[in-house]
Design brief:
Elements (H helix, E strand, L loop, with lengths): L9 H11 L5 E7 L3 H10 L7 H10 L4 E5 L11 E7 L1
Length: about 90
């Protein structure tokens, strides 16, 4: 639920999550992708933040994650186009 944190606190949250991982640990994050539709629904209705792929990638690198992979949530769901899935390792 990182979308509900203020944008300036996401980096600290990722750093703290990284500290909780074992050396071989894996962090799997689902976060709302920025688009016209998600800005309206997530941003206005649920009062959450939305992100571009490049923003998320930068935040993970700044938090010290060495390995970041973007995954596809689902091949068949229309709403999967509005979710960014990140697999990060220490």
């Amino acid at each position: 639920m990182l979308e509900y944190l203020p944008k300036h606190k996401i980096g600290n949250a990722l750093e703290n999550l990284k500290k909780l991982l074992r050396d071989s640990g894996l962090l799997l994050v689902f976060i709302t992708k920025r688009s016209f539709i998600t800005k309206l629904l997530a941003g206005r209705w649920w009062k959450t933040n939305t992100y571009k792929k490049s923003e998320i990638e930068s935040l993970f690198h700044k938090a010290g994650f060495e390995s970041i992979e973007f995954k596809r949530f689902s091949q068949t769901s229309w709403w999967a186009n509005y979710i960014i899935v990140i697999e990060a390792k220490k």
